[in-house]
Amino acid sequence: MVPLLGITAATVATAEPASPAAACPDRMIFEVGGNGDPKADVYNGSNERLPAGVAFTKVEYSASIAPLPGNPISMDDSVAEGIGNLDRAVRDFHGACGGAQITISGYSQGAIVAGDVLNALSADTVIPHGQVNGVLYGDPRRPSDNGPGGIEGNIPTIIPGLSMKGERGFGDIAVHEICNKNDTICFSENPITNLLGFANGVVGYLSGDHRYVIDPHAHMGNGDTVHDQPPRVPHGPPLPLPIGTPWEIFNGNLGAAQDSVTQIRNQVANALSPELRDRLAELPFLSVPSA
Question: Which of 55, 127, 244, 276 could form a disulfide with 15 if both were Cys (CB 3.0 to 4.6 A apart)?
Fold first, then answer.
């Protein structure tokens, strides 16, 4: 199964700076993996290519999303664990190496963790904002400044423990969001105004478009990069109607949210092949509990 969002159990410093400031790296990259990747192994290849003066710290957490099979920990608890581990690791490193640059990177569920910490740091002055940047891949909370945003600002909360928290920003901290156009996790069309566009993202996710070339040192910068892709489900632009996303309309009303997502799931299923229809449970955001 393609990884979705991530969590781990402890903070592991793969490259630990020595105590003297002279031994500190010029830049430390903090890395958070996605669902099923508690040790951020998705970063292994890029870590082997880091230049001198750049080190990395893998931040471990549970990387789990109940109700997915084999995931005993809810996404909310997993994300909270990751945020605590990452925030502590970043602040401890800055305390030891106050002049070093800090890059915070996350993939999928790890992008929720990394992005939420970057959001908190943008409202904090403990670490100068010019010393911090972020690189996020397949972020479910990606802002909708460049077309549709992430799924957490589109689909409402339908399962306790799988909270859809909406979009968030980063103030004056430079953050590079990287997203594939066929990936419903970060590029999620409003299913009310563009059902086939939303279905395209679901098919893309199930077909591997949630995979990314992970290399935060090469992808630093600021702003939003959406990789254009040929659609997997033919669709046009959204209807030009001033209708909010289901998240905007129903989030906070669990019963109405579940009814809305049930309708969306049934409509999307009609646009899928039988094989992909059987895999819809891999998207817990559409896994409406049985009545």
Answer: 55
How far apart CA 150 and CA 139 sit, in angstroms, is: 6
- Asked whether the whole model's pTM tops 0.70, one would answer yes
* Rg, the chain, Cα only: 19
Encode pLDDT of 86-110 as tens digits. 999 999 999 999 999 999 999 999 9
Burial 183-216 (b: 16+ CB within 10 A, else e): bbbbbbbbbbbbbbbbbbbbbbbbeebbbbebbb
For the record, the structure tokens of 63 come out as 């990387």
pLDDT in tens, 123-176: 999 999 999 999 999 999 999 988 999 999 999 999 999 999 999 999 999 999
Residue 92 neighbours by CB under 8 Å, 6+ apart: none
